[in-house]
User: What shape does this take?
Amino acid sequence: MLELDQLIHEARTRAAASESLAALDEVRVHYLGKKGVLTEQLKVLGSLPAMDRPAAGQRVNRAKQAITELLDARRHTLEEQALAEQLAADAVDVTLPGRGQEPGGMHPVTRILERVQALFTTLGFRVEVGPEIEDEFHNFDALNFKPAHPARAEMDTFYLKDRPLLLRTHTSPVQIRALLKYGAPLRVIAPGRTFRHDYDVTHTPMFHQVEGLLVDKGVSMAHLRGTLTDFLQRFFEKDDLKLRFRPSYFPFVEPGAEVDISCIFCDGSGCRVCKHAGWLEVLGCGLVHPNVLETCHVDTERYSGWAFGVGIERLGMLRYGINDIRMNYENDLRFLRQFR
Assistant: This one.
């Protein structure tokens, strides 16, 4: 049998000289592989006298263990060196300026919401919010919707599993909650998300509204017209913007009206956007129906009020020239980059 101590010394020298994991693996195969040196030594044991085999086998196993340990130690060293080299090669200088950074921008819907709120708070209106999951009382009953009104149908309203609960179809329920909480006099705006079964270039199942309410003594349509004229002229930044009130029906106001503005694209002369009519519809409004005030325990002999509702996406489409409301929610960066 070859001198085992000499084998261990040779294996240590070869392992120390290995500069890569591949070279080290060749050393392992040479000594510990199926046809390796120590494997051949084990085969020789069969030719030894029976009384010498145990001691010789123990010496071979000790040599095998020693060579395994020194190979493992060298492998650990090589792995640490390889990791250090990789980290050095991939190191990032965190003090360098960033590359390809683009500033974020406020979403157009958020921009319009904040602009509307800012304009009305300067007029003394407080901002009120309410739950998006409503009950039929606040969403319909208190607002004078009759039981058979088509807006209550499931084809128009998202009802939850428990039928009395629904996703609010407008932010008018916030006005009811505010009246019940604060009473009269009161002036509030109610911005927020609303939900209806609708989807096309001018409607989405989820959209934003701002509704306004003013209740006080001696309130009339003249006050409503003056407030809306001031708001829309400042919103579109056109002092010569004209308003037109057309009679319309809403359950919670009487009388009710649709409000048109002179086309902001052609100044009322007629264009493709306004369908050559010179006018653009923007919102609905009217004097608060006495039934609504009485439901909210407001004395209709002393107080009257007006209310309006406007779609935020509608205002954004007019202000920014957006021709498809769905673009607000498709996350197309080509569209969103315009509002940075």
